[in-house]
Design brief:
The protein is an alpha/beta fold. It has a domain of 85 residues: Nucleotidyltransferase, domain 5 (2-Layer Sandwich). It is 31% helix and 16% strand. A five-stranded mixed sheet has the order 4-3-2-5-6, with helices on one face. Strands 1-7 form a two-stranded parallel sheet. Strand 5, helix 3 and strand 6 form a beta-alpha-beta unit. Helix 2 packs across helix 3. The longest helix is centred in the first third of the chain and has 17 residues. The N and C termini lie far apart (79 Å).
């Protein structure tokens, strides 16, 4: 006598359709890629001054680095103090509230950092910030 449950073989077992789940995963992947904020790093390593307290900076900002040799970089390219406005202005056309974060090396001259900040303000930046490494 055969049992009714044993007449099925393993190949007859119902299998879930994974196509909708794969579609959902790709839709989520596309969503996260589109909503991610891409930020250009300044392109050089600077040794920053130490700070006792830190404040979180915005993710969407313009990064400019001043090295120990007083060279000004943005996006891995040397722009010089005079080129800061040319770098910053086009970015402000997309979002005029973008702050500029200046990453200055501890050995950089304060005058050069001040000149970079002035060029940013002349380009129309509303806020500039100077970073330091936290302890």
């Amino acid at each position: 006598m055969r049992r009714s449950g044993s007449s099925y073989s393993e190949s007859d077992e119902p299998k879930p359709d994974l196509s909708p789940m794969i579609d959902c995963v790709f839709i989520l992947l596309i969503f996260f890629i589109v909503t991610t904020v891409f930020q250009k790093p300044p392109g050089v390593e600077v040794t920053r001054a130490q700070a006792s307290q830190g404040v979180r900076l915005e993710k969407n900002s313009i990064l400019i680095a001043v090295t120990a040799e007083n060279k000004v970089f943005h996006g891995g390219q040397e722009v010089g103090v005079g080129g800061v406005q040319n770098v910053v202005r086009p970015m402000l056309l997309e979002d005029e509230e973008l702050p500029v974060i200046i990453q200055a090396d501890t050995n950089a001259f304060r005058g050069v950092v001040s000149d970079v900040e002035k060029q940013c303000l002349l380009a129309g930046v509303k806020r500039t910030k100077l970073t330091a490494a936290t302890q």
